[in-house]
Amino acid sequence: MVMSIADRLKGMISVALLNQVVKLIEEGDDKKLASLFDGISRLAPAKFQRESFKELAELARENHPFVGVFRRVFEELHPNCRKKLIVNLIVNFMVLSRGIRDRKMNELGIHIPNFIVISPTMRCNLKCKGCYAGSYDTSSDLTTEEIDDLICQAKELGMYFFTISGGEPFTRKDLFDIWAKHDDCYFQVYTNGTLITDEVADRLVELGNVAPMISIEGTPEETDFRRGPGMYDKIIETYRRLRKKGVLYGFSATCTRTSASYISSDEFIEHMLEEGCKVGWFFQYIPTGHDPDLSYMATPEQRAYLKKKVDEWRSKYPIFLGDFWNDGPYVDGCIAAGFRYLHVISNGDVEPCVFCHFAVDNIREKTLVEVLSSPFFEAIRSRQPYDDDNLLRPCLIIDHPAVLRELVAEYGAHPTHPGADKLLDELAAGLDEYARRMKEIYDPLWEEVGREKYLKNLEKEDSPMIRSRYNQRCLRCSGKGGK
Description:
The protein is of the alpha/beta class. It has 19 helices and eleven strands.
């Protein structure tokens, strides 16, 4: 039996304090949010988490709109889903697992990421336009035993959060057994939502530690254009089914040239709130996978406008929002290659991220520790941030494509599906032009407010690796920023 995270951390934390936090959750009183965040802060082994949850406690006392998402968690989630969200995701993953990872990094002399994305299958019941996973081999799946073993290895290193992607994860019925076995972890599942029946929703309530993130493209017309006729109505039906059951769920929206205008509107985010979403993830369309198309990418101006709107919404609406290509300053830049996460695909190949379809290592041949020590991954991590210190332009693929071409060639990384190498040649000129324009837009913003805001937040971080990583890169950037 896998030892629980609380057992692992006895002696490092107060078990009485942990029990006090659990009691507050079980009482389900949203008026005690400040006390809950204060308690979680006292559990944290690292300064960054302690300071961050103290700030959340203050926001709760001020009744800040953002904290409203936690009030919604207390009011709208089934008690089991609420408890697992706070204990497994916030306490185990966000707070306590940091102590295990820090200890293991010192012991093993490797860098350990926060989480892993696993794509157990690339099979899917849809064929969406521009799907990043649309060109993978669908004949090879990770076995149940391989998925379980990978999660066990990750937990030994202090990882308690896993994103399940694909393909369509809900084609794999055995995943419910995996989620039940690893009852101290939290699982986020990216899905098209079509296979979430009432029976599946009931099972998710029973588990409590699984949150579906359901893809939507904004308007009914845009969603049906990309995903197929009638898909918009099916997605809304699934949202409502999960809301009725009390399951945590959210939306996943891809910013394309045609969808950008609507998904950057107040109308869109307010509609997602009305449909019960408590989480929302924004992705930029990356020209990889099925039929890569540069003209389908959102323009640099559209990407910048989405950033402006997400920043605004965070101070206005009770929903947690993540904007992968604009949120670099919140996660210290690019999170790929095991810095914050990595991607294991259905044949065992390990990619730097879900959009960077090149690999050197395979979990069927190496342990997770060996993968994290990969020279390819170490080279990517050592180059971050890439050409300069601007964390608003963090991406190896669309912000620094020349670096991607260099590293793939130097370490002999192979494409993980046919056509992935188009990023390196056929699409290279277009990506270079996109990156040039992105630099023109975001460098002034970084100079004016971005760097100062990031460095202020960095004061909370007591990890020497995080601080030195940024400062050393600044020294290589002609003395720009940092100190």
